[in-house]
Amino acid sequence: MDYRVIEVNARLSRSSALASKATGFPIAKIATKLALGYTLDEIQNDITQSTPASFEPTIDYVVTKVPRFAFEKFPGADPTLTTSMKSVGEAMALGGNFQESLGKAMRSIDKRHMGFNWDGDKPSQEEVEQLLEAIKTPTEHRYLQIQRALWGGATEQQIFDATKIDPWFVRQFALINQTALEIKNAEKLTKRLLKKAKLAGLSDVQIAHLRRLGDEGENAIRELRWSYDLRPVYKTVDTCAAEFDAATPYYYSCYADETELRPREREAVIILGSGPNRIGQG
Prior knowledge:
Strand content: 5-15%
Strand order of the largest sheet: 1-2
CATH topology of the largest domain: D-amino Acid Aminotransferase, Chain A, domain 1
Number of strands: 4
Order of helices and strands: HHEEHHHHHHHHEE
Number of domains: 2
Number of helices: 10
CATH class of the largest domain: Alpha Beta
Structural class: mainly alpha
Distance between the termini: 35 Å
Radius of gyration: 21 Å
Shape: globular
CATH superfamily of the largest domain: ATP-grasp fold, B domain
């Protein structure tokens, strides 16, 4: 059997908590009951309250986790990413597609200059060659370098040859670039184009920069979006892709046509705040 090491930790990982949030499946609780002698068919699914834990979680959305690094606080540390744990936290986002969830996750780590941007001139051929060389070494900036190299004219094959990242993901980066440039060069920001931008994971402030409005243009883009009645809706995390009714679901926002959010009959409490390292933010 052929093995690949994907992560090495000197402590318990946060991944199980994030996997639980992503699927709606309480991994720690189920594991504890299994350790006590229960079998999966004897444990009830807390969300559906009608199916057993032996039902494998089914999802109809995309979950993306982006790590948060703090190499700026440790100037002597090697920023090359390896199998050793070097992130200090992470953010997880749910969306209707990969591009949308990636954009949400990148913004959620709340770190300046860590999101895609198309400010300034298109990268020169010399810069593209430098980027193609840089992305051979994995760092926290690699996905930004890939986006910029593609904008400058690098081919998807060149990106794959330099990184060995699955071509499907490289293609998603290329599609985000295509949508961004369509926004940038359009004579008018129509409803169809604006919705396409949101489905590509672009924020209002990113769209404002593409339209050469700067940070101050974020409100103008939001007001235009509202005038088109383009607002996020809320979809259900229910472990079963709506095959069964969910008694205690939770929700994620995305740009789709219908909302699945149920009207509340009592007041609710929202707790906001994730700390500077984004530990366990969903």
